[in-house]
Amino acid sequence: MELFTNQVLAGIATGAIYACMALAVVMIYQAIDHLNFAQGEMAMFSTFISWQLMQWGVSYWAAFLITLAFSFVAGIAIERILFKPLVKAPVLTNVAGFIALFAIINSSAGLIWDFTIKQYPTPFGSAPFLGSQLISTHQAGMIGVTVALLLALYFFFQYTRIGLAMRAAASVPESARLVGINTSWMIALGWGMATAIGSIAGMLIAPVVFLEPNMMGGVLIYGFAAAVLGGLSSPFGAPWSAASWSACSRISPVPTSPASAMS
């Protein structure tokens, strides 16, 4: 029974990462009706940014916040520069754009930081959580950060003017434009938020899988699967699907780091 409980809790912790990735995928899909094949690489590059900042002496949480801001701005810039001109282009043109973005980001990360595996610190530690051997402090931290993120997004989309405008722009863009909502910029904000959410997934999973340019490949695949299972039109269905599915199946995207207490 203890082993079963341990596996379920470990699955929920891993599912928290899939939930963040699935949420990022869904947000961009709602904005432009396309799956972002470069979502994992964007998260990986942001994680490298935070790692580099820490190498320069910046504290973990300061690097975390700076990386979120960088990711948000970078997401908006990618949408404005690359995908806004493709808004009326054929589907395959957009797919080619995503594949090109994937290759550019992956190669750039390898060129800047090389392809050797690097250790990434965890702010939570790897000791047993509250003295229990069933879950580590890093696992508990992953779950806590994801729950806090989902609650923050829920209140943002339900009770803020910008959140409501983004929902309207995604659901009924023609009607939203008629009432004065700048749907183009709402899409850009969606890209920025999705990129920032993806970076959170990267920074949380990096202590487990180690940091290298291909670290997010498996996570993105399961994020896609969770997004489809939970509903590409449901920002909160996808994360719930990811956590539930991972808890039941206990799927791990890549071999677990021996230095962590994730398994």
UniProtKB/TrEMBL annotation:
InterPro entries: ABC_transp_permease, BCAA_transport_permease. It is found in: Cell membrane. Keywords: Amino-acid transport, Cell membrane, Membrane, Transmembrane, Transmembrane helix, Transport. It is a multi-pass membrane protein. The keyword Cell membrane applies. The chain crosses the membrane at residues 12-32, 60-83, 95-115, 135-157, 185-209, 215-232. The keyword tRNA processing does not apply. It holds the Pfam family BPD_transp_2. PANTHER family: ABC TRANSPORTER PERMEASE PROTEIN, BRANCHED-CHAIN AMINO ACID TRANSPORT SYSTEM PERMEASE PROTEIN LIVH. Belongs to the binding-protein-dependent transport system permease family. LivHM subfamily. This is Branched-chain amino acid transport system permease protein. It comes from Bradyrhizobium yuanmingense. The lineage of its organism: Bacteria, Pseudomonadati, Pseudomonadota, Alphaproteobacteria, Hyphomicrobiales.
